[in-house]
Amino acid sequence: MYSALWNLTNSNSVYQGIPVAASKISVVETATSSAMNSSPEGTQIPSYGDQNTPVTTVSGHASWVQDDLCMLQSLGIQKIAYWALYDPYTMWTGYPWYKTGADLSWNGFWGLSFEPEGAGQKNSWSVLRNYYYYGSLSCPSSLVYATPILSLTPTSTYYTLAQPLRVTWTAAEVASLSVNQGGDNTYTCDTGAYLTGGVASASCAYTNTGAFYTTGSQTVTITGTSIGGTQQTAGTTVTIGAGPIVNAVTNQNYSYTIGSNDTMIVWGNGFSLSGGNTLQLMRDGYADVWFYDGDGYYFWDQSNFQINASLNGRAAPGVWNLYVRNGYSGTPSAAYQLTINP
Amino acid sequence: MTRNRFHVKNSLRTTAVGLACVFGAYGQAQVQISGHIADQSSAAPIAGLAIFAVQPPSVAAPQPRIYRTTSASDGSYSVTVPPGSYRICLDEAEGYLDPCQWALGSTDISATTPTSRNIALQKGRPLIVRISDSGGVLAVTPSGAVVAPAVSVSITDSSGKTRLLPFRRTAGAVHEFSLLVPLASYTLHVASSAATLAAPDGTALTAAGYNATVNAAAPPATPPSWLPIWLADRAARASTIVALRVVGAGAH
Q1: Counting one residue from A and one from B, how many pairs have CB atoms under 8 Å apart?
Q2: CA distance B123 to B98
Q3: Based on C-alpha coordinates, what's the Rg of chain A?
Q4: Residues A193-232: pLDDT tens digits?
Q5: What is the pTM of this model?
Q6: Domains in chain B, please, with CATH?
Q7: Residue of chain B whose Cα is closest to the Cα of A43
Q8: Domain coordinates of chain A in residue numbers?
């Protein structure tokens, strides 16, 4: 930044800048997280950055830049320069950093142009470019309250009767938020900590909503209200079934051949994200074998889609029927035939 | 009888106790297990934690019974159960270790009468294995039955017990596996029959995969001085991270 300002304002620099007194220079930093749009416009990752930096869409980015420029123009500041910190996504996700997209969303700033240049310009860049080149800027003549920008994503699209849903939401330009299914304590996206100021105090968080008690397609919505009272709603549809669903069972190496001392990984939907699931193996002539947290063996069930359980020789080789219960609906999954090898 | 019926309805609304558990308890005498959940180091109450009173199967009741509740803002909890022996287990989402996985027996309770039990929980550390796969060798089919890349990731602790690191997500081109673990050393095993992996130093691995000691008790490595602070200073929750990458298809 120092070098850039020096070059810009010093006529002796290689860039032949315009002498401007230091007291006349104002530096403004604005930043936002990567867009919620799909690649290459964004990462589709809700995030919760520094100082509640909101996540928004590429249209939201453009509105943000436009609002910034309008603010500067209304103050009579029309001589501006733009610097962007731009780091290629492929650099940070590759050797030697191996950062995830989530890391970069929280911390990175991907500039106003697309990384693949051929993809064109982001909306926000067009706003800036039109102002630079043509002096074209559309500013409201009076105070206009922004429309809230919202996104709602469930952790799963399938839940069972009586099972609370978990949804992740992001919001910008909101003073208050509400979820139609209600919700428990709301947690921030990046730390798992509570939002002490309520759901409108951050740009990204998740909450556990109330359950549905009717099977079929159901809708969860979040409504945001701006400081001026403008409302916007975002929704998502989930399927509610009677019980969990088992899609596959593998061993720890993702092989469908399961040995009696392997760890079985049960893949499916409608498992309880916060634990409390049970697995039952049934076979004629044998006592039922139960797997659950607290049974004395490795058991991991902190996912809507996956349960890991160590067999430890508890089920004799042969063909068993597997049932999963999530502790909410009372209805087990349909039987899944599982062969356990010696 | 009427009173019991009301209790069942009320439980469903307020504590989301599993239906099977409630109906199993129907008509039986009930006792209450209650107490406070707190951080072992700071004694701060832990709110919003899913807590399970687990009754193992017996001859009389061959199905395990699991009674769920959630800790309140002051860390207090209570759960109503039939008299018996229970093991208190919990959700690890808040970063505290589940005693039923890491300190089995430490939360066992005999609850024949109303029982109070305070529980101090130890913080764990996420042990994270990230596998960079820019070529998409281990790409996951979203519609497939197995929603994970074909990489086996596990740890063995000092007692010889092995646990899987469950697959958690793919972000960008990076597959992430993680498990909350106590602060200790582990032998980490990472292997794939579908890809040739490279160690953190770039060395291509054999089919035996990556086998190394990982110390989850060590403080996170100091970021190199050239790394921008806004990038290095992100960890909201201290984690131990091992970064590998895919360098080819099929086991080497």
Answers
A1: 174
A2: 10
A3: 27
A4: 677 666 776 777 888 899 999 999 999 999 999 888 999 9
A5: 0.81
A6: 2-121 (2.60.40.1120), 125-249 (2.60.40.10)
A7: B172
A8: 31-134, 149-241, 245-341
